[in-house]
């Protein structure tokens, strides 16, 4: 049995007339009548009672019409869903964000994704360090990552989105808070709060390089795993922190942010995903994120 036969039968059953059904189907009446006869022969039942003026459903035809409509509706729904999947409008993605992107980019991104791709089920993981993001991408736990390069794994496609300046988070009652901008040398005697070296934070390496390029050795007081914890400790007066400028979106009482100058160091924010993945909904999400930058 072919789907075409089902469509023919439904048209005749609904129109109760072969001529009107033929017009509806844009075909000649004799082939339509022959197709219904073949369907009845295949099933071994009479679906229609024919007269010279009308067509009436038999009891078997009435039952068959309900099932035929359900089958055709399911096929149409499946086709619609397939087209939506092919267009990247349906699917599930998990996006992992480095700490600074969690606060500065994720709120606007989540809203935009909900509007542009309402059929895609998104979940988000924030406050991820780059090594954790890379592991999650390779394990399939995260589909797209917003991270800070460098990323050494060549199986990942990495695209730079922007470069962020560095700022210094200082306690609001610190003398440094009275300055409009701060040099690395101004931090020589300040206790630093940094992202964990043990978890191979990119920002730990950036801060270390800043100081050593200036001929200084940083005085690290605390190492933390999350950006929110880092800023909370600054607010508690336990030290200062060098962070990407988007972290300023994390506003806490007791913390002010000051521009870091000489050198005017920047850090990249990049988008990463497994290079071999090209599902339509992932491609559309990547394009949308790039368009936001």
TrEMBL record:
Residues 1-58 form the HTH lysR-type domain. It comes from the Bacteria. Keywords: DNA-binding, Transcription, Transcription regulation. One of its GO terms (cellular component) is protein-DNA complex. CDD domains: PBP2_LTTR_aromatics_like. Pfam families: HTH_1, LysR_substrate. GO terms for molecular function: DNA binding; DNA-binding transcription factor activity. Signal peptide: none annotated. Belongs to the LysR transcriptional regulatory family. This is DNA-binding transcriptional LysR family regulator.
């Amino acid at each position: 049995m072919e789907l075409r036969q089902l469509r023919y039968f439904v048209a005749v059953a609904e129109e109760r007339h072969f001529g009107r059904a033929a017009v509806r189907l844009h075909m000649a009446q004799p082939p339509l009548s022959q197709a219904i006869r073949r369907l009845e022969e295949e099933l071994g039942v009479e679906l229609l009672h024919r007269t010279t003026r009308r067509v009436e459903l038999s009891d078997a035809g009435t039952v068959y019409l309900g099932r035929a409509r359900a089958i055709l509706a399911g096929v149409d729904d499946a086709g619609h869903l397939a087209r939506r999947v092919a267009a990247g409008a349906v699917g599930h993605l998990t996006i992992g964000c480095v700490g600074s992107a969690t606060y500065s980019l994720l709120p606007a991104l989540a809203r935009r994704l909900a509007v542009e791709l309402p059929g895609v089920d998104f979940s988000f993981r924030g406050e991820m360090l780059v090594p954790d993001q890379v592991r999650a991408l390779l394990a399939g736990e995260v589909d797209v990552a917003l991270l800070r390069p460098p990323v050494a794994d060549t199986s990942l496609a990495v695209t730079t989105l922007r470069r962020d300046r560095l700022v210094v988070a200082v306690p609001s009652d610190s003398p440094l808070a009275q300055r409009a901008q701060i040099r690395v040398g101004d931090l020589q005697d300040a206790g630093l709060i940094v992202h964990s070296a043990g978890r191979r934070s990119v920002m730990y390496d950036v801060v270390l390089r800043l100081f050593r390029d200036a001929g200084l050795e940083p005085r690290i007081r605390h190492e933390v795993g999350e950006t929110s914890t880092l800023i909370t400790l600054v607010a508690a007066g336990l030290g200062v922190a060098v962070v990407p400028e988007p972290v300023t979106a994390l506003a806490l009482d007791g913390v002010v942010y000051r521009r870091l100058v000489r050198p005017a160091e920047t850090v990249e924010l990049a988008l990463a995903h497994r290079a071999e993945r090209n599902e339509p909904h992932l491609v559309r999400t990547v394009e949308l994120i790039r368009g936001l930058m």
